[in-house]
Design goal:
35% helix; EC 1.4.3.16; Flavocytochrome C3, Chain A, domain 1; alpha/beta; globular; Fum_Rdtase/Succ_DH_flav-like_C; Methane Monooxygenase Hydroxylase, Chain G, domain 1; five-stranded parallel beta sheet; L-aspartate oxidase
């Protein structure tokens, strides 16, 4: 059944992690619809343990933070975007504290931790390892209190409505009913893609929806081959895998195998504090060689573990492990997508009327590899910039949204129905095996072929499955095209970085369709 929303909004925001919530709070003078497919605040943001990076300490500076960010990026980060990120970081922290976010303090001073590839302590935490949950608590409370922000929970956006070359609304499903919502501006803040992989630290919501919506609307995607795998997921066999935060290694925890060999000493001068891509591949190689890899915090954190890392400690205890006494088994898992919808420094995409921010967007700040604890910061900083740009746009825009927008076409559309658990398991297995941490041309070509075959069999019955299949094919195609290794993208057949590929990449759905025709 189709329903027409009786209201036209100024802005529709899709997604309610830190980026979506921050955009909404930047627009409280306007009529905003905040759409989230589960509950308000659900998603990867509230799971974030490690913290949020900003140059708040003595001896630190935005320039030093920018240097560290660029140093791990594989030489393809956007320096202008990095400058924006690190320069605005401290003000962002002050805004959060004014909002009521309770960062950890010691005798009145901010507690600043250090994580991999940071040259000094600059990581703010809340409740030790519950930073994301504290941010979401404060942000959702503020959104709930705003009289101009309408929240639509359990509402899944199925398509961006494009009229006369610009996005002008969304088609969504809520409670079994389809609804057409109209607005001159739509913001994607839908999060990441971790659920494309068999092993991930991401929650069930991370199914690549925003990338699929943008691609089908004709938007450019950037750097989508770069998927970050976290080196220290707790290898319990659960889905998703629990994260053992980077802050554990920042506090001195080491990585060993069952022989008690501290293998990172031979891999990188920074050992356990090497960039994530280096550590993740080292753990992967240990597992491929038949070893078991562990995180060992017994001698370095020891009795302090329950107080400093209560979330991790509670989960370990639920699995019969005590990190004060036991080594913790680890494995790499899909964690973060450096690529996304291509945007400029204020979040505008290549399609008029469409903005993006947070993990779904590619601002270029991460390049080929993300610096630890920069993701929450990026989501918040660039969400505020999206809000600023939208305020300017809404003050100046003279384009009205047609009242009959797309109804005839939408009412005749065949929409996916049902569940796709079996097909989704196949997608995740294919991506993990052939488009995961270590890649080859033959494996990537096989992945593209298998995914295309799934698409051709009409086996996909759900919107979730359709989105995942579309984005999985795009990522595999981009990874096949990049004939080098850089950052999180590692090709066994091209193990070195090359000058030819010392730049980002741009992809469209039309490029995938052209490839499939060859």
């Amino acid at each position: 059944m189709m329903s027409i929303s009786p209201q036209v909004y100024d802005v529709i925001v899709i997604g309610s992690g830190v980026a979506g919530l921050r955009v909404a709070l930047s627009l409280t003078d306007y009529r905003v619809l905040l759409v989230t497919k589960t509950q308000l605040g659900a998603g990867s943001s509230q799971w974030a343990q490690g913290g949020i990076a900003a140059a708040m300490g003595s001896g630190d500076s935005p320039e030093l933070h920018a240097y560290d960010t660029l140093a791990v990026s594989g030489d393809i980060a956007n320096a202008d975007a990095v400058s924006v990120l690190t320069r605005l970081g401290p003000d962002c922290m002050r805004w959060l504290m004014a909002l009521g976010v309770a960062f950890d303090h010691d005798q009145g001073n901010l507690c600043l931790g250090r994580e991999a590839a940071h040259s000094c302590p600059r990581i703010l935490h809340a409740q030790g390892d519950a930073t994301g949950a504290e941010l979401i608590r404060a942000l959702t409370l503020s959104v709930r209190q705003s009289i101009r922000v309408e929240v639509a929970e359990a509402c899944e956006v199925e398509e961006l409505v494009v009229h006369a070359g610009r996005v002008a609304g969304v088609m969504a499903r809520q409670g079994g009913e389809r609804r057409l919502y109209r607005a001159p501006a739509v913001v994607l803040a839908t999060g990441g893609i971790g659920q494309l992989y068999r092993y991930t630290t991401n929650p069930p919501e991370a199914t690549a929806d925003g990338l699929a919506l943008a691609a089908r609307a004709g938007a450019h995607l950037a750097d989508i081959e770069f998927v970050q795998f976290h080196p220290t997921a707790l290898a319990t066999g659960s889905d998703p895998l629990p994260l053992l935060t980077e802050a554990l290694r920042g506090a001195g925890a080491i990585l060993v195998n069952e022989l008690n060999d501290r293998f990172m000493l031979a891999e990188h001068k920074a050992a356990e504090l090497a960039p994530r891509d280096v550590v993740a591949r080292a753990v992967w190689h240990q597992l491929q060689a038949g070893h078991t890899a562990f995180l060992d915090a017994r001698d370095t954190i020891g009795a302090r573990f329950p107080d400093h890392f209560p979330t991790v400690f509670a989960y370990c205890r639920s699995q019969g492990l005590d990190p004060r006494l036991d080594r913790l088994p680890i494995a790499p898992a899909a964690h973060y997508h450096m690529g996304g919808v291509a945007v400029d420094l204020v979040g505008r995409t290549s399609v008029s009327g469409l903005w993006a921010c947070g993990e779904v967007a590619c601002t270029g700040v991460h390049g080929a590899n993300r610096l630890a604890s920069n993701s929450l910061l990026e989501g918040l900083v660039f969400a505020e910039r999206v809000g600023q740009d939208l305020r300017c746009f809404l003050r100046s825009q003279r384009t009205s949204v047609p009242s009959g927008l797309g109804l005839a076409d939408m009412s005749q559309r065949s929409w996916p129905e049902g569940e796709d658990d079996r097909v989704i398991r196949q997608i995740r297995d294919i991506m993990w095996t052939d488009a995961g941490l270590v890649r080859t041309a033959s494996g990537l070509a096989d992945a593209i072929g298998q995914l295309h075959e799934l698409e051709m069999t009409d086996a996909v019955r759900s919107q979730r499955g359709k989105n995942m299949l579309t984005v999985a094919q795009l990522i595999a195609m981009a990874a096949l095209a990049r004939k080098e290794s850089r950052g999180a993208h590692f090709r066994v057949d091209y193990p070195e970085a090359t000058g030819t590929w010392a730049h980002g990449s741009v992809w469209t759905l039309k490029a995938l369709e052209a490839y499939q025709m060859t």
